[in-house]
Each structure stands twice: as structure tokens, then as C-alpha cells.
Amino acid sequence: MSTPSNAIESNLVENRVFPPSDAVVKAARVSGMAGYEALCAEADRDFEGFWARLAREHLQWNKPFTQTLDESNAPFFRWFGDGELNASANCLDRHIGTPTENKTAIIFEADDGAVTRITYKELLGRVSQFANALLSCGVGKGDRVLIYMPMTIEGVIAMQACARIGATHSVVFGGFSAKAVQERIIDAGAVAVVTANYQLRGGKELPLKAIIDEALAMGGCDTIHNVLVYERTKTACNMVAGRDKTFTEVLAGQSTECAPVAVGAEHPLFILYTSGSTGKPKGVQHSTGGYLLWAKLTMEWTFDLRPEDIFWCTADIGWITGHTYVAYGPLAAGATQIIFEGVPTFPNAGRFWQMIERHKCSIFYTAPTAIRSLIKAAEGDEAVHPARSDLSSLRILGSVGEPINPEAWMWYYKNVGGERCPIVDTFWQTETGGHVITPLPGATPLVPGSCTLPLPGITTAIVDESGQDMPNGAGGILVIKRPWPSMIRTIWNDPERFKKSYFPDELKGYYLAGDGAVRSADRGYFRITGRIDDVLNVSGHRMGTMEIESALVAKTDLVAEAAVVGRPDDVTGEAICAFVVLKRARPTGDEAKAIATELRNWVAKEIGPIAKPKDIRFGDNLPKTRSGKIMRRLLRSIAKGEQITQDTSTLENPAILDQLAQTN
Ligand code: PRX
Questions:
Q1: Which residue is closest in CA terms to ligand 1's atom 10?
Q2: In terms of CB atoms within 10 Å, which end of the chain has fewer, N or C?
Q3: How far is the C-alpha of 265 from the C-alpha of 172, rounded, in Å?
Q4: Could you tell me which residues come within 8 angstroms of residue 520 by beta carbon, excluding any fewer than 6 positions away?
Q5: Contact partners, residue 218, CB within 8 Å, separation at least 6
Q6: Residues enclosing ligand 1, CB less than 6 A?
Q7: Which atom belonging to ligand 1 lies closest to the Cα atom of 404?
Q8: Quick one: average pLDDT of 196-202?
């Protein structure tokens, strides 16, 4: 737990503080630090009473809960355990009969620029219809459904439809390979797949269904009886009789009414696979009640949501951000949101800014990696600079997924936010379900590069390796001391790993986030310093180094050994750097280049294109201690191009360092 941060280094020290303007404070839902502190004090005074109040106010319950928090089987906490509700009803049906029913729920902009709008009432009809289609395929409460869909209204419909009938969805990002899909189908025991024939990104038609076919052909997926295929484009795809059905076929004749199935608050709403320290991705299991409460509440608190807002979270539904702040939060809160199918650089790198202008977006939420790449693009081409678009509709900006360096923060603040929009730098994780540390736009004075303070009721702290609190100014391990409603419930199929990963014995029952952090001496603000385990953050995508190593050594005809580390990258935050020992002599020149390409393609097949190493260095060996342990900190220095200053006396083969430093 002592790996140093690989997060990108910042040249700018930004000590300025940006307090919210009086007008913003006055109009905000959580108004000023007094408003924030009042909520924190309420949670302090009566922790369970605080959460119970919010759960009653923000969710509609079919059966009210009588017990708020059950800690009897910690760390398997239960929230609102005897209550019953339905997540889809809380996102859709609740708006029917209110002015929201005819409000636009989703403004969809396709890759080619075509725009479709759908109201809450229409969305309810479409979700119900698809829920009926799932039921007609024999999918029901408790079944798992794997969703492998493009960023479309239909992706959200598939998720909501599962929730409506009590099926547990597991969405897999479209950038994962057939092998990754197969592993997730097997681990989740999924009974059906929802996919599309193709996805459209950057003007290209990319296959999705073909990847599902490949995954199912790999074997072990006998649980799958139905593959439902959304015809995103007119191009035909392979269809297996009896197993595969198009949306048109399966929706034909289905009613647009489907009674939502009330489930227990702890019923698993979804499983979402994410990377950990070992080779195998973890199926993070979330609840229905606690998760949805936090999705709705953080929409309102963190984004200070108002009825007239046009909200846009650019994350894909394949990641947690796309679950909480696309598929659930905005709908539960009755917001109008933008969903974008394409990529920020097509047809040009001004697309985001043009879309903000076109749709009068007022809250824009994206990742630092996107901001950094758009800064680069704007520096190279005036025509795609945000100044070319009218961004006056913007009110609030957000950042998520990785640390935002102060340079990028300042650029975002000035050029996108016109120096009037607060930036909420939201720290959270797949496991936390929603934001845990973030400024509130009408309350928290902002410091660039800091996610500031925990949300009310969230007991984050910085401790040492034995769980002792660290003073402000000293770095340490980020923990959350008490449970919170939207926390991970378990790792699907692996409760022991859940306990070991998140509640290690030495940390006194605190939740271990896996990040290092430091609190500022003056304000007690949190700054995340990066992961303390073997997890990388590449373009905001979470990736396990061991996972990539396992993929490399699975190329048994070629690879003898591999070690993967991260190095800073000024656009993607971190870049993947692989050190590889082949079963044959160390290649050089063109041969090295050819083998590196072969290995990159191999990793893309094993995990997905997002896991391709940027650098591959070949060595005769890897730096090891006499007991055979690979010295990763030395590899990290080499990857960064640093001089080795660390002690290398325990190394069995110090000469290897020079060789690895030379190869590229
Ligand atoms: O290292 C932290 C980083 O992203 C990790 C969580 O990744 P994932 O589960 O994929 O969820 C990403 C979207 C919530 C964290 O452990 N991270 C996320 N947000 C921030 C961050 N690091 C610094 N600042 C953030 N705002």
C-alpha cells in the first residue's frame, strides 16, 4: 500500500481561492458554508436519523423501511433493509401526473449530429415496453442481464427496464474485448445479453454484436438464452436462430405498460466490473435503495440542480459515472439531460463546445483527460477553441475520474466557464456509488486541484497504515470511517475478496478507498495524490497492472515474463508501460517494433483497446531482488525516464537497469 502516485505532475502552483459569488450562494440549494455545515451537523448529531430523513424525502417506497442501518454483519452493511421500492418507478413513474411528465428527459445527439428528444412520459412507455420484452424472453427478478450497448437512449432504456422487473444489469463498456465480455458473462451468470448490431463513433461503424458472438463462442456461456439486438444502423449482422432477436422483433406487440416490481432495498440493482490489484476484475455489487438515494441526492447537492437545467455528463454508461449521472441520477431528479453518442473530436475538437451552445447546456460534467486533450486541440487550431462557441448557458462545471491538474482547472474555469461557473471536482469511485468528496457550488470556496470536503454524512479521513488519524498537511491513506447508503455491498461471487480489499483488519473497520490523499494545513481540504495499489488511471479509465500483465503472459508462445507500471502522461494522466521478457532473444530495431505491435494487439484482444500499453520495453530480464521479487519502483523510475537514485543494493541483476533504460 505504499506505491507512489503516478498522477501527472503540475508545474503550476495555484494558491488562489475562488469563493462562490453572493448571487450563487443566495440561490443555491445548499447555501453557503453555513448550509453545508448545518447538514454535516445534522449527520453528526443523529447519523441514522439523517439518512432516514433523506431516504424518506427523496425516494418513493412501496413498503416503508423501519430499520435504517443494520451493522450486525459488518462490513456487509444493510441500509433501509426491510423497505421495498423500485428504481425505475423512482426515476420515471414518480414524474407522471406532475409537470415533469411532459418535460424532455433526454436530448440525444447522435454521432452524425441528428438530434432526438424524448419526454419522461414517452421514456416510461419505452422502458415499460422493453421490460415486457425481457419478461417475454423469460427474464425476471434476480436474473442477470449483460448490457453491451452504444451511448444511446436505448442503452438507458435497457438498464431501466432491467430495474423495472428486478433483474440485475451488468453493463460492459463497448471498448472491452470478447474475452472480457465472456469472463463477465460467466462470473455474473447472465441469462441474456442486450446489444446493438453496431455502434457509431467518429463517423465509423464499429461492430458490437460480432463481439458478443465471439464471446459466446468462447464457451462457458450456456446460461445465455437470449441475445437482443438493437438495430442501430441498417447494416445486417449475423443472427443465430432461436437465440438472437432484433429489437423490432422482440418489441412487436408489447404493451407500453408494465407494473414495476417492488424489490427489497438491498436487492442488487447492478453489478459493474472494475479493476483491482489482482488479475481478475471485481464485480462491484450495488443496492437499489441506498444507491438510488445517493444518485438523486448528489445530483441535487453537487450540481445544485434546478428544474430548468440542461445537464450533460459525458461519461459512457459502461462506467460508474454513466450509471449514476446518466442512467439513474438525472432521471430520479427529473432533469433534462443530454446524451451524446460520439467522440469529442468528431467532426472536430470543438464538438463539446458546439453542443453546449446548441442545446443550451447549463451543467457540464466531464473528465480531466478530455479537457486536456481539448486544450491541446484548441492550442493547435483556433477554430475549435471554446471561445468560438456561445457558452453563456453554462452555470456549473464538473470534473471526474482523475485528479485535475491546476493548469487544466484554470483553463476550464476561464475558457469554458467564463470565470463565472464553479467547478465541482468530484472524487468518488465505482465502489462509492456516487460522489464522496466534492465542493458544493453555492457553498465551498474552490482551490484548483483539490476536491475540497466530504459530502454531509460521509466520514472521510486520512490515516496511517494502522488506522491512526494523520494531522492536516501530512499525507496518508484515504478511508471512510462509517458506512454510507450507496457503498458497494459485496464483490459478486467473492465476499472474502470484498472484505480483504476494502476492510483490511489493520484499518479498524474503515473502508479503504485505495487512494492516497493529503489535507491542506489551512482549510483541511482533501487533495487526492493517486492510487496506492496496482491500479492505473489512463484517460480516467481504471486499469489493473496485474490484469495487463496476465494478458501479456497469456501469449505463451512469445512472452516469458512481464511487468506493467504507469508513468505520467500530460493528456491521459497516466500511460501504461510494459516491460517484457520474451522466450526468445531480446529483439531490437524493427523486430522490436513488430513484436511490440503484436503484443499491443494481443492485449486489445484479451482485455480491450483501452488497455494497450503505450510503451513496451524488452529486456533480457527484469530487475529482481535475490528472493525473486520484481522491483516495480525501479521500473516506474525507468518508465518516467528518471535517473535511478534509489538503493539498488538488494538487486540481483543491477546491470539490467541500464539495458531497460536504453530500450524503447
Ligand atoms: O484514483 C481515484 C480516481 O479514480 C478512481 C476510481 O475510479 P473508478 O472506480 O473507475 O471511478 C471513476 C469515476 C468516479 C479513484 O480511486 N478518481 C476519481 N475521481 C477523482 C479521482 N482522483 C482524483 N480526483 C478525482 N476527482
A1: 542
A2: C
A3: 24
A4: 447, 450, 472, 473, 527
A5: 178, 179, 182
A6: 274, 320-321, 400-403, 425-430, 451, 513-515, 528, 531, 537, 542
A7: 24
A8: 97
Helix (H) or strand (E) holding 283: strand 282-286
CB distance 308 to 275 below 8 Å:
no
Model confidence band, residue 651 (pLDDT cutoffs 50, 70, 90): confident
Distance, in Å, from the CA atom of 481 to the CA atom of 475, rounded to the nearest integer, reads: 17
pLDDT of residue 4: 41
262 three-state secondary structure: coil
Rounded to two decimals, the pTM is: 0.95
Residue located nearest, by CA, to atom 15 of ligand 1: 429
Atom 5 in ligand 1: residue holding the nearest Cα: 429
- Pair 28, 42: CB distance under 8 Å: no
List the residue whose alpha carbon is closest to atom 23 of ligand 1.
Answer: 403
Ligand 1 pocket, mutate which of 277, 412, 502, 515 (most atoms under 8 A from CB): 515
Residue 58 has pLDDT above 90, yes or no: yes
For 409-418, how does the pLDDT look when each residue is reduced to its tens digit (9 = 90+)?
A: 999 999 999 9
Task: For cell 488497455, name the residue.
Answer: 611
Q: What angle do CA 170, 172, 173 make, to 5 degrees?
A: 145
What are the beta bridge partners of residue 425?
A: 399
Please give the number of the atom of ligand 1 that sits closest to the Cα of 426. 26
- Cα 592 from Cα 596, distance rounded (Å): 6
What is the CA(426)–ligand 1 centre distance, in A? 8
Task: Report whether 248 contacts 234 (CB < 8 A).
Answer: no
Q: Spell out the long-range contacts of 214-223 with Cβ–Cβ below 8 A and sequence spacing 24 or more.
A: 214/178, 215/178, 215/179, 215/181, 215/182, 215/185, 216/182, 216/185, 218/178, 218/179, 218/182, 219/182, 220/182, 220/185, 220/186, 221/182, 221/185, 221/186, 223/185, 223/189, 223/190, 223/191
Q: What is the DSSP string of 542-571?
A: EEEHHHHHHHHHT-TTTEEEEEEEEEEETT
**Residue from 274, 538, 542 whose mutation best tests the ligand 1 pocket (most atoms within 8 A of CB):** 542
Q: What is the CA radius of gyration of the chain?
A: 24
How far apart (Å, rounded) are the C-alpha atoms in residues 489 and 511? 12
Pairing of strands 168-171, 104-109: unpaired
Give the N- to C-terminal CA distance of the chain in Å, as an integer: 29
User: What's the 3-state SS for 87-106?
Assistant: HHHHHCHHHCCCHHHHCEEE
Nearest CA to ligand 1 atom 22: 402
Give the distance (Å) from ligand 1 centre to CA of residue 210. Answer: 31
CB 616 within 8 A of CB 596: yes
- 173 backbone dihedrals φ, ψ, rounded to 5°: -60, 140
Note whether 526 and 427 are within 8 A (CB): yes
* Ligand 1 site-directed mutation target among 429, 437, 527, most atoms within 8 Å of CB: 429
